[in-house]
TrEMBL record, chain A:
One of its GO terms (molecular function) is ATP hydrolysis activity. PANTHER family: D,D-DIPEPTIDE TRANSPORT ATP-BINDING PROTEIN DDPF-RELATED, TRANSPORT ATP-BINDING PROTEIN. Keywords: ATP-binding, Nucleotide-binding, Transport. It is a peripheral membrane protein. It comes from the Bacteria. CDD domains: ABC_NikE_OppD_transporters. Its main location: membrane. This is Oligopeptide transport system ATP-binding protein. GO terms for cellular component: plasma membrane. It comes from Bosea lathyri. Pfam families: ABC_tran, oligo_HPY.
UniProtKB/TrEMBL annotation, chain B:
It comes from the Bacteria. It is found in: Cell membrane. This is Oligopeptide transport system permease protein. GO terms for cellular component: plasma membrane. GO terms for biological process: transmembrane transport. Belongs to the binding-protein-dependent transport system permease family. CDD domains: TM_PBP2. Residues 93-294 form the ABC transmembrane type-1 domain. It comes from Bosea lathyri. Keywords: Cell membrane, Membrane, Transmembrane, Transmembrane helix, Transport.
Automatic annotation (TrEMBL), chain C:
This is Peptide/nickel transport system permease protein. It is a peripheral membrane protein; Multi-pass membrane protein. Residues 97-286 form the ABC transmembrane type-1 domain. InterPro entries: AAA+_ATPase, ABC_Ni/Peptide_Import, ABC_transporter-like_ATP-bd, ABC_transporter-like_CS, MetI-like, MetI-like_sf, Oligopep_ABC_C, OppC_N. The chain crosses the membrane at residues 38-58, 101-124, 136-157, 218-243, 263-285.
Length: 367, 308, 653
């Protein structure tokens, strides 16, 4: 273990320009007895011991399937959920040190943009009212005139016209609604935008507009982005660093070029293999299919949580002489089923993969 | 397994209900014995009533005595008739049940059929007529409807007896009158839930199998919509038991509802207490039964229960 | 019913559904546009006027007894007759309106003021507060309502004021329950989370976001409860336990008339009538409010009807002269298909002249955005388009050489069974939740076949095995919710394949699934296709998926196919500006990280509001406002071995 660890699981080393520092944060649900209920609810480890940091002005992407815990992680960063263990630090302030009022004030710095703009705007408020609410809550730009000024400035920034201000969300198109949602997020000059699947509910031809808008805003306002998505193409386009999440943990994290260009964890490898099949010429090659589906977070597999689906483990198990055991999901190396893997840094240290065999990978093959 | 669990969760409710009914006498503002005895009573009289009510006993003894009254004829007697409350209630219960169950059954059948008719042709003439009728049914005071029916069928036409409970014919009018409300409720419920089910993709899956439209509707859509109807049926049955208070008065049927009304107007507290307790226990068990039936009809809730 | 009809036939139901009224005036307008609403509102206003001015309008003293004129029939002097004490019934009804309706108003307000805060509090605080409130409500609901009210009267004594308390207490649990339920559903809305993450305080969230959004439902509930409260309060009066004589109240008056029902039936008629109509008025108003505020109460779906099938048979399905003949041997052949939604403004064209062929063993992907008409097209080919919502106005559809339009029900079922299999986007919705997988599969296998029970079961097991579901025998007895999303989609595919269809129609079969599961389903579909040689029609918005999976592609825009051909040909070099832009605007292509994406200006057009000439013109980068683009809808032509509908397609060659 003498390899350099820029982002060890055990604790992130904060640097001066890191806006978001998540240090070994966990969020477990349930486990408490409810009133009038005899048994304790089972524990769901939605987020388990996750660490990462995001330097100012960059974009960090969390990639994962449904049930991977990526939304819970995002809500830990926004402060909508409190970690059951670990710490989230925003702009040098640890969220656990804040009382509810302080936390609300802190929220000015971290804003959330949700997937479905239809649902994320109050149907009974005009766009103007929605935008003003942010200013009222944080007592910014007091006075009618100043407020109107600010609202108009922001609305222009996101590419809407003042004519849209008097409208209700249902009177706008999908793209316009998402622009309004972004306007609400940036109106009180936050440091961080947490983008939860920001384009996946939009029409394909509108998605590019919003992606460009987000890029422009990041450059203009020096924003730091935390983007949650399942779309690896979007990650490659927007993000600087990425964490690939599986059952509440990062299986691989690091620079986007490194993780997406030369994935080292078998899970990332299979995701990238699917994403790479976009050219018609590739379609006659047999696809790598990951078997099974993501296990329930109520029953996370022992050892490496990916071992129940891992193609690498299957291949290794086929090699004679290895220490193999039989599980319900097939034959896998004993280490995979029993030992929890540790993060392993890539040569050069620009990414880490949490796999027993990351140090000595078998050649990736598609057969 | 689930049955026991559900029974277990009903116990606290039953306990709370019995406590509430038990403290009922204490909720009466002022000294109940004083009120019972009347303004002219002497202190001795009041004291004897206190003793009779057991107001001087410790709370726990009183509660035990109260619970014993549910089956022990000697434990509670009516102020008015001085007969055991248990006897008074059990004599009248069959009449009440006949009317409630009969009314519910007819309401269920009529309501379900008319609901299906509505849903099959929304906007059609049948739908319009039934929708108007259901609205009228829900808005109709059953005591007025009862009076009108007595006047028309018993007085004018002379087909049926007007009051009493001696022959089966006596029960026809009350059952029909009391059936209007559940019939109207079911009709709307079945129609809305059927129409809701009709928007689901699984009906198109069924159609793509080549099934007939009748089978698609009755086997696939109706089954799903009945789940909602069953839980309402439970509440309705409770409502019918409550409604017996009014119907039995209108039709002069000697039932528990009538007994309760008489007891309230004459401040016969033991009878009031046990009649209310009986209604509440019935209601709790009916809710239990409907929960179990819903559970059985809807596999999703079965597993939810198992999971939690 | 008219509102229900318009909702049912609006072209984009989801857009119509989330419409929430702007202000009270909008509510009023929508209220009076319904027959129920206008009648209910008028009656309610009349009743309220009666309650306010009734006593002043009474022609005679409602309390003056006149033993010379007891129990008189209605006459000019006494419009509604006189009662057993010779009092004027008409005057008593006018005077009694205030007590009767006042009890209703008082009871509902009492219940509202206690129940709603309790319910909102329970939903907001959760935890033990909610547990205690809900348990208390359970206990209260254990008493039939009129019995509970009787108990309250027994404790407090019979009087108007106590009846208000009694009926009010009875309604508290109803308010608390509903308030909790609607608050919970509003709190689950993303905009609440958005507001909290903005830093809004709990009080602000409740006052600004929760209360305005639940007010409509609560208003509806209050109106409906008012009707039932009125009835139970008057019921107490009828039993002699409400308003005490000599004060008039309609229920009490009814109770007094009971003894005279044989001899003087009109005595019961008028109070009963006033009571019934007032309950009706509030029920009507409540129903009308509900159609405005409760989206689930609306009748959005309508069944196909026998009559309409007949009507459709007579619909002009005759091909026009310009249509090409269907391709021989094609599994699906569509010619000149036009479809239109019924709406208030008349027919809105959603499919505008589509020609397509799918040969056996091939996969055609129809790509388009929302509103392009792609799903409507798929449903039409699947013979599942709801004739009440959308009509085929022109063109032909042939499946396996048989026309799919204008069939009698029997023939239609036969066609569906033998030739068509359908897979939907949301597998959870496509399976009946209350039937086991085995029952649903059996149905698909058994319909129209003569297999015995054992053979049917074996076939079901084989089918599940075919779609790679392990342990099929045990799985047959399981219910859909016990499977994961991917497994459910496999089951839907198994059902679709049960009778070896000629064509499998798949409407976004993987877009609700995770990437890795998506891949599994696609591989499965391809394998099934290879084994069975069936045609697949895949509807999707995802060009990457098309590249991975389809043989042929048809790009749909505003109801027309703008570019179609072999996937390799079309995607290697796209000719239509829309297809080009779609390809170029997807991230992850050649643009490189952080570079700007090429975008398409504007948004997809709404159905029925298409621009003149070429529908894509306002968003087109190639058009440069050339007059040809304004003048006509470009014809579909063969350019560089694919069909393309652009006047200047050659410019891209």
């Amino acid at each position: 273990m003498n390899a350099p660890f820029p982002m060890p699981q055990g604790g992130a080393i904060p640097q001066d320009d890191d806006v978001i520092v998540v240090d070994a944060a966990s969020r477990h649900f349930g486990g408490r007895r409810r009133l009038f209920s005899a048994v304790a609810a089972p524990v769901v480890r939605a987020v388990d011991h996750v660490s990462f940091r995001v330097p100012r002005g960059t974009c960090f992407a969390i990639v994962g399937e449904s049930g991977s815990g990526k939304s819970s992680l995002a809500r830990l960063v926004v402060g909508l959920l409190r970690p059951t263990a670990g710490e989230v630090t925003i702009d040098g302030v640890a969220l656990s040190t804040l009382d509810p009022v302080g936390l609300r004030a802190m929220r000015r710095k971290v804003q959330l943009v949700l997937q479905d703009p239809r649902a994320s705007l109050d149907p009974r408020m005009t766009i103007f009212d929605t935008l003003c609410e942010a200013l009222t809550v944080h007592r910014l730009h007091p006075g009618r005139e100043a407020r109107l000024e600010r609202v108009k400035a922001v609305i222009a920034l996101v590419g809407l016209s003042p004519a849209h201000l008097g409208r209700y969300p249902h009177e706008l198109s999908g793209g316009q609604r998402q622009r309004a949602a972004i306007a609400r997020a940036i109106i009180c000059e936050p440091e961080v935008l947490v983008l939860d699947e920001p384009v996946s509910a939009l029409d394909v031809s509108v998605q590019a507009q919003i992606i460009n808008l987000l890029a422009d805003l990041q450059a203009k306002l020096a924003l730091t982005y935390l983007i949650i998505t399942h779309d690896l193409a979007l990650v490659e386009h927007m993000a600087d660093t990425v964490g690939v999440m599986y059952l509440g943990r990062f299986v691989e994290q690091g620079d986007v070029e490194q993780v997406c260009g030369a994935p080292r964890h078998p899970y990332t490898q299979s995701l990238m293999a699917i994403a790479a099949q976009i050219e018609p010429l590739n379609r006659d090659q047999p696809a790598t299919v990951l078997e099974g589906s993501i296990p329930s977070p109520l029953a996370i597999p022992s050892g490496c949580s990916f071992h129940t689906r891992c193609p690498l483990a299957r291949r290794l198990a086929a090699v004679d002489g290895a220490d193999i055991i039989q599980t319900a999901d097939g034959r896998v190396p004993r280490r995979c089923a029993e030992d929890v893997p540790l993060p392993h840094a890539a040569p050069g240290g620009r990414s880490t993969a949490t796999c027993h065999f990351a140090a000595s990978p078998l050649p990736v093959s598609h057969d | 397994m689930f049955v026991f669990k559900r029974l277990g969760s009903a116990l606290p409710t039953l306990f709370a209900v019995s406590l509430l009914v038990f403290f009922f006498v204490d909720l009466i503002p002022g000294d109940p014995a004083q009120i019972l005895a009347g303004p002219t009573a002497s202190n001795e009289e009041i004291e004897s009533i206190r003793k009779f009510l057991g107001l001087n006993e410790p709370l726990l003894t009183r509660y035990g005595q109260f619970l014993r009254g549910m089956w022990d004829p000697t434990a509670a007697t009516s102020f008015r008739t001085h007969r055991p409350v248990v006897v008074e209630l059990s004599e009248r219960l069959p009449n009440t049940l006949i009317v409630a169950i009969g009314g519910l059954a007819i309401g269920l059948i009529v309501g379900t059929i008319s609901g299906i008719v509505c849903a099959l042709r929304p906007g059609g003439i049948a739908d319009m007529v039934i929708t108007l009728l259901t609205l009228a049914g829900i808005s109709m005071p059953i005591y007025w409807l009862g009076l009108l029916c007595i006047w028309f069928f018993a007085v004018n036409l002379g087909w049926l007896p007007a009051a009493g409970a001696t022959t089966p014919a006596h029960f026809v009018l009350p059952i029909l009158v009391i059936a209007t409300r559940p019939a109207a409720m079911f009709s709307r419920l079945v129609a809305t839930s059927l129409l809701e089910a009709m928007g689901k993709d699984y009906l198109d899956t069924a159609r793509a199998k080549g099934l007939s439209e009748t089978r698609v509707l009755l086997f696939h859509a109706l089954r799903n919509s009945l789940i909602a109807a069953v839980s309402v049926a439970g509440v309705q049955f409770g409502g019918m038991l409550g409604g017996s208070v009014v119907t039995e008065t209108v039709f002069g049927i000697p039932g528990v509802g009538r007994l309760l009304v008489d007891a309230v107007s004459r401040a016969d507290y033991p009878v009031i207490q046990y009649a209310i307790l009986m209604f509440a226990f019935f209601f709790v068990f009916i809710n239990l039964a409907t929960d179990l039936i819903t559970q059985w009809l809807d596999p999703r809730t079965r597993d939810e229960e198992r999971a939690t | 019913m008219s509102v229900m009809n318009t909702v049912a036939s609006s072209p984009a139901p989801d857009r119509a559904l989330d419409f929430v009224p702007k202000s009270r005036w909008t509510v009023l307008r929508r209220l009076v546009s319904q027959p129920k609403g206008i009648v209910g509102l008028t009656l309610v206003v009349l009743y309220l006027l009666l309650a306010i001015f009734g006593p002043a309008l009474a022609p005679q003293d409602a309390f003056r007894q006149n033993f010379a004129q007891t129990l008189q029939r209605p006459s000019a002097a006494h419009w509604f007759g006189t009662d057993q004490l010779g009092r004027d019934v008409f005057s008593r009804i006018l005077v009694g309106a205030r007590a009767t309706l006042g009890i209703g108003v008082g009871g509902v307000s009492f219940a509202f003021l206690i129940g709603v805060p309790l319910g909102v509090l329970a939903a907001w605080r959760r935890g033990w507060v909610e547990a205690v409130v809900m348990r208390a409500i359970d206990v209260m609901l254990s008493f039939p309502d009129i019995v509970f009210a009787l108990a309250v009267v027994a404790i407090l004594g019979a009087s108007t004021q106590n009846v208000i308390i009694a009926v009010g207490v009875v309604s508290i649990p109803v308010f608390a329950r509903t308030a909790r339920a609607v608050t919970l559903s509003i709190l689950a809305e993303p905009y609440i989370e958005g507001s909290i993450s903005l830093g809004a305080s709990p009080a602000r969230v409740i006052l600004r976001h929760v209360l305005p959004n639940i007010s409509g439902m609560l208003m509806t509930l209050s109106t409906l409860l008012f009707a039932s409260t009125l009835l139970s309060a008057s019921g107490l009066g009828f039993l002699g336990l409400g308003t005490q004589p000599p004060h008039p109240e309609w229920g009490t008056m009814l109770g007094e008339s009971r003894s005279y029902i044989r001899s003087h039936p009109y005595l019961a008629t008028f109070p009963g009538l006033f009571l019934a109509v007032s309950a009706l008025a509030f029920n009507l108003l409540g129903d009308a409010l509900r159609t405005i505020y409760d989206p689930t109460s609306r009748r959005t779906a309508r069944p196909a009807r026998f009559l309409d099938l007949l009507r459709r048979k007579r619909a002009p399905a005759a091909p026009t002269a310009a249509l090409l003949p269907p391709s021989p041997g094609a599994a699906v052949s569509v010619r000149g298909l036009r479809m239109a939604y019924h709406s208030q403004e008349g027919l809105l064209e959603v499919v505008r002249g589509v020609d397509l062929d799918i040969m056996p063993g091939r996969t055609l992907a129809v790509v388009g955005e929302s509103g392009s008409g792609k799903s409507t097209l798929l449903r039409a080919i699947g013979t599942l388009a709801n004739p009440q919502e959308v009509a085929v106005t022109a063109g032909t559809i042939e499946i396996g050489g048989e026309s799919a339009l204008g069939l009698a029900p029997e023939a239609l079922r036969d066609l569906r069974r033998r030739k068509i299999g359908i897979v939907f986007q949301d597998a959870a919705n496509a399976l009946n939740p209350v039937l086991t997988v085995g029952q649903q599969l059996t149905e698909a296998v058994q319909t129209g076949s003569s297999l015995d029970a054992a053979a049917v079961r074996q076939r079901c097991i084989d089918l599940l095995g075919d779609v790679n579901i392990s342990d099929p025998e045990r799985r047959l007895d399981m219910y859909p919710h016990q499977f994961s999303g991917g497994m459910k989609q496999r089951i839907v595919i198994a059902i679709a394949l049960a009778q070896d269809p000629d064509v499998l129609l798949a409407d976004e079969p993987t877009s609700a699934l995770d990437v890795t599961i998506q891949q599994q389903i696609l591989v499965l579909l391809r394998e099934m296709q290879r084994k069975r040689g069936m045609a697949i029609l895949l509807v999707t918005h995802d060009l990457n998926l098309v590249a991975r999976f389809a043989d042929d592609v048809a790009v749909m825009y505003a109801g027309r196919l703008v570019e179609s051909g072999h996937v390799a040909t079309v995607l290697a070099r796209t000719l239509h500006p829309y297809t080009q832009a779609l390809r170029a605007s997807a991230p992850g292509g050649a643009e490189g990280r952080g570079k700007r994406l090429l975008t398409i200006a504007g948004e997809p057009p709404m159905i029925g509001a298409l621009p003149s000439g070429c529908a894509f013109r306002p968003r087109c980068q190639r058009s440069q406002n050339r007059s040809q683009c304004f003048a006509e809808e470009p014809a579909i032509r063969l350019v560089a071995s694919r069909q393309v509908a652009c006047c200047f397609a050659e410019e891209a060659c």
